[in-house]
Amino acid sequence: MMKSQGGLEWLGRTIDRLSRLGHNREPSPRAGEIGIGAAVAATNMCVANNTVAILLNGELARGISDRYGVDPGRSASLLDIFSCVVQGLLPWGAQLLLASSLAAVSPLALVGQVQYCWLLVIAALASVVLANRRAAMATYTPAATESP
Question: What is the dihedral of CA 63, 67, 72, 78, to 10 degrees?
Answer without folding.
Answer: -80
